[in-house]
Amino acid sequence: MKPGLRKVVFPVAGLGTRFLPATKVVPKELLPIVDRPLIQWAVDEAVAAGADTLVFVINRNKRAIADHFDVAYELEDTLVRREKHDLLRVAREVLPEGVETVYVVQQQALGLGHAVLCARSVVGDADFGVILPDDFIFDRQTPALAQMAKVHAQVGGAVVAVEPVDPQWTSRYGIIDGEDAGDELIRVSAIVEKPAPEDAPSNLGVVGRYVLPARIFDLLAATEPGAGGEIQLTDAIAALLAEQPVHGYRFSGKRFDCGNKLGFVEATVAMAMEDPATADALRESLPEIIGSA
Ligand code: UTP
What we know:
This protein is α/β, with parallel strands linked by helices. The protein is built from eleven helices and 13 strands. Helix 3 (about 75-80) runs antiparallel to helix 4 and helix 8 packs across helix 9 (about 235-240).
């Protein structure tokens, strides 16, 4: 069997209100960081972690995501006739050979936990990964989910990506409590969704990468709406704690919260600096742009 995580779920059925009006028609996940949509970066990360089945949880406004990963026959035919081989390769590489896409509809935006539950029949009994594409994580060596797949193969149970967050913003995250288990792992003893700073058990916030056992689906099905009236993934993970080990993993790499404007712009600049086509010119023009602002 192929190593790594074979199935990865992308819950992308949220409304993306913080990016209006851009997201009125265009799904947030199709907004590009330089020339690759957020969802493309996420898919590349899943494939690097071993995925061969990509499960997108969408809604009626997110159908363009399926178009992005479909074969664009007319485009490819034109590029073949024009002998634009490099561009043809770029257009075809959106989905590597042997990787399958499955689309599941979340009919009502009842929360992240509910969105993950919608993937149940496709995921079945296997452990699986979850990527929230608007949490963009860049690491030059090993993408975050691949790091987590490796750790998960050693410790089992559930592994959630964590990073220290500004204590005043704990109410934006699931926050964990636990003990250092070495090798960037924290053995989780408690997890709470969006606590006020004074109630937060630590400053370690869960960010958009998870490796979960299929048992989480039973627990999600039994989860009542929590913070914000939504079915929270965090609450199901809290229930899992009684049965299986849950580890927080301090991944290596830089995270950009592309669900908000600042994070999105920072990610764009960071990736443009990684691209030889733009890095040198940007190094010159950026101080000028900033200086004249
Ligand atoms: P967010 O909290 O970022 O919400 O969801 P959002 O709708 O994407 O954006 P804003 O806050 O309105 O601007 C976190 C992740 O969970 C998914 C979202 O698509 C995003 O990937 N999600 C959330 C669902 O798939 N379904 C839901 O019911 C809620």
